[in-house]
Design goal:
Strand content: 35-45%
Shape: globular
Number of strands: 10
Order of helices and strands: EEHEHEEEHEEEE
Radius of gyration: 16 Å
CATH class: Alpha Beta
Helix content: 10-25%
Distance between the termini: 9 Å
CATH topology: Rossmann fold
Number of domains: 1
Strand order of the largest sheet: 5-4-3-6-7-8
Bound molecules: inosinic acid, magnesium ion
Number of helices: 3
């Protein structure tokens, strides 16, 4: 049992399971992007831990940057996406890899992909650690997915409940 703010959570995905799955994704990305020098865009805040662990295991030359968007308030998607820090790098002609913590309704990812596409990248692929297929409202193509999970609120490993729980090294599910 884990208490985060005023709610109780139960263990869901262990640090070992995360590590193993991230190893696999890193191998796939390294193989798919060999010789291509991609630009990795991590989506703040939620993806910070995942991007960090994933990119330590990707063994090809790449560049990294971060974008910051916000759509959630406490436990609900507001349906509106605010861009808090935009993309400062040159996107035109680049092979972009977007790294997210979770795709829930797909609203954030759809908005982000539109924003990035407008800047003329050579290609875009999407990595998401978690994916809740049952919550999807906008169709999103995901190239690399860590875990498909049920439509239940989760925290830990970068994901928060009202700002708390991001530092937990495993993922917990609302009880
Ligand atoms: P979407 O726009 O509904 O797909 O939501 C995407 C964003 O909402 C993610 O990047 C997360 O930051 C946040 N989010 C969605 N589901 C959860 C959850 O279960 N726990 C914590 N944050 C979540
Ligand atoms: Mg996020």
């Amino acid at each position: 049992m884990m208490k985060v703010k005023d709610k109780e959570f139960t263990p869901f995905i262990s640090a070992e399971e995360l590590d193993e799955r991230i190893n696999c994704i890193a191998k796939d990305i390294s193989k798919d992007y060999r010789g291509r020098n991609p630009l990795v865009l991590g989506v703040l805040n939620g993806a910070f831990m995942f991007v960090s662990d994933l990119m330590k295991k990707v063994d090809i030359p790449l560049q990294m940057s971060f974008i910051k968007i916000s759509s959630y308030q406490a436990m609900n998607s507001t349906g509106k996406v605010r861009e808090l820090i935009g993309v400062s790098e040159e996107i035109k002609g680049r092979e972009v890899i977007v790294v997210e913590d979770i795709v829930d309704t797909g609203v954030s990812m759809t908005h982000l992909l539109e924003t990035i596409s407008e800047k003329g990248p050579a290609s875009i692929s999407v990595v998401s650690l978690l994916f809740k297929p049952a919550a999807l409202k906008k169709p999103v193509m995901l190239d690399y997915v860590g875990f498909e999970i049920p439509d239940k609120f989760v925290v830990g490993y970068g994901l928060d409940y009202d700002g708390f729980g991001r530092n937990l090294k495993e993922i917990y599910q609302l009880k």
